[in-house]
Amino acid sequence: MLLNGKTILITGANGGLGRAMAKRAWESGARLLLADIDAAAAQAAVDCLPAPEMAKAYHGDLANEAAVAGMMQEILSDAETLDGVVNNAATLDLNDTNPIDTPLDSWHNTLRVNLTGAFLIYKHALSKMVAQGSGSLVTMSSVVAHSASANPQIAYTASKGALEAMTREIAMTYARDNIRANCIAPGPILTDRTAHYFDTDEKWQSRRQHIPMGRLGRADEIAALACFLLSDDAGWQTGGVYRADGGISASYVVDDRDGAPKP
Question: What domain count does the chain have?
Answer without folding.
Answer: 1
